[in-house]
Write a structure and sequence with these properties.
120 residues, 71% helix, single chain, 5 helices, mainly alpha
Length: 120
């Protein structure tokens, strides 16, 4: 194999869907079906919180969180990095866990920033 900088693995598996419950669920079914039970459970919790507080903020946070998750999971290299850092966080000493948490935060912050950026 050569040292190609870009490859098919660097390309997103699917386009980033609009940030709606329906399109995020459809995207997860394609790229991360194992996450669907957590998605449904967290959606139910967010909807209950929104109803109880008469506030849409819990649903908005849910959508933002899952849009970022889809953003990462649709890109194999980012998803692999995230899984690697999550595994490191689970098995590392305190210093290693802090570094892993910082790297996880960096990946998720970048996903949120990319989603917030205006389309050009």
């Amino acid at each position: 194999m050569g040292a190609t900088v870009t490859s098919a693995a660097d390309q997103p598996l699917i386009p980033q869907p609009p940030a709606t419950v329906t399109t995020l669920r459809q995207a997860l079914a394609q790229i991360a079906p194992a996450a669907l039970p957590a998605f449904t459970r967290e959606l139910d919790q967010a909807a209950d919180q929104a109803r109880q507080a008469s506030d849409l903020a819990p649903l908005q946070r849910f959508i933002a969180q899952w849009a970022a998750y889809v953003y990462v999971q649709r890109q194999p290299h980012l998803a692999a990095d995230l899984r690697r850092w999550e595994a490191a966080a689970a098995t590392a000493d305190a210093d290693g866990a802090r570094r892993a948490a910082a790297e996880i935060g960096r990946i998720l912050d970048a996903a949120h920033a990319a989603l917030a950026a205006p389309l050009t």
